């Protein structure tokens, strides 16, 4: 049997959702193909996985342009692609009249252009797979946000990108579910405990209180639940939030 491969775009510094999913999939025997823009951090995280007994390859990209994302897939290791997770996405939070063309390009490239390229390359490879014992040729998961569902006073450009990502995932789910490709979208409704958020908040009590923030490892467990679903009961959209999150 071919080695199963999982590709994850957006693993950051190794402290967030993408990295947490990668660790769990490595324990399941997947070879991880890791995509991110920071080559140094990416290489260190790949080394971490390999040091823990996993298999991983770093696929750094200069940007989330269509061409750069497509090129990353051309460097996939030997095996059969079964899981693809698009966790990339830049955010801009500012009043609408302060939004610049650069802000728009930044958000649309990572949330729309890169997502289209990632989905195209992943689904193309999934279609060549045999159906597994869960009734799948492959699983594609997109990470969304609160802004996927509603805009706010400083999220005009960010919400535009996330709305588009959600629409893409829904369209693909309807089109390719008929070919046994499972496409899902996860709404992450809350703040995740990452190094960046810890530094920004500087609030040890917030870090310790699981009622009011999201833990990357818990999000990763939910993603694995999507991977394990059988074809008679698939989820398209999953929303995750802390117990005390206002929504």
Textual characterization of the structure:
- The chain is of the alpha/beta class and 247 residues long.
- Helix content is 42%, strand content 18%.
- The protein has helices at 17-27, 39-51, 66-73, 101-126, 156-176, 195-201, 204-208, 216-228; strands at 4-9, 31-36, 55-60, 80-86, 138-145, 181-188, 237-240.
- Strands 3-2-1-4-5-6-7 form a 7-stranded parallel sheet, with helices on both faces.
- Strand 2 (31-36), helix 2 (39-51) and strand 3 (55-60) form a beta-alpha-beta unit.
- The longest helix is centred in the middle third of the chain and has 26 residues, at 101-126.
- The protein is globular, with a radius of gyration of 17 Å.
- The model has no long low-confidence stretch (mean pLDDT 94).
Strand segment tally: 7
Largest sheet at a glance? 7 strands, parallel
Secondary-structure-derived class: alpha/beta
Oligomer designation = single chain
Share of residues in strands:
15-25%
List keywords for this structure.
7 strands, 247 residues, seven-stranded parallel β-sheet, alpha/beta
């Amino acid at each position: 049997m071919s080695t199963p491969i999982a590709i994850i775009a957006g693993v950051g510094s190794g402290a967030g959702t993408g990295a947490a999913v990668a660790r769990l999939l490595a324990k399941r025997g997947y070879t991880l193909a890791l995509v991110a823009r920071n080559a140094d951090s990416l290489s260190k995280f790949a080394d971490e996985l390999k040091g823990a007994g996993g298999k991983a390859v770093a696929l750094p990209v200069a940007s989330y342009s269509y061409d750069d994302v497509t090129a990353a897939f051309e460097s996939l290791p030997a095996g059969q692609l079964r899981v693809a997770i698009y966790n990339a996405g830049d955010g801009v939070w500012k009043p609408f009249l302060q939004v610049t063309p650069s802000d728009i390009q930044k958000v649309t490239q990572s949330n729309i252009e890169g997502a289209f390229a990632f989905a195209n390359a992943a689904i193309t490879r999934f279609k060549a797979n045999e159906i597994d014992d869960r009734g799948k040729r492959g699983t594609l998961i997109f990470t969304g946000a609160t802004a996927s569902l509603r805009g706010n006073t400083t999220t005009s450009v960010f919400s535009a990108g996330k709305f588009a990502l959600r629409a893409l995932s829904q369209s693909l789910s309807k089109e390719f579910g008929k070919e046994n490709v499972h496409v899902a979208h996860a709404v992450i409704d809350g703040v995740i405990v990452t190094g960046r958020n810890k530094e920004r908040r500087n609030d040890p009590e917030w870090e310790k209180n699981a009622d009011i923030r999201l833990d990357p490892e818990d999000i990763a467990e939910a993603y694995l639940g999507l991977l394990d679903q059988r074809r008679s009961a698939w989820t398209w959209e999953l929303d995750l939030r802390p117990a005390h999150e206002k929504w």
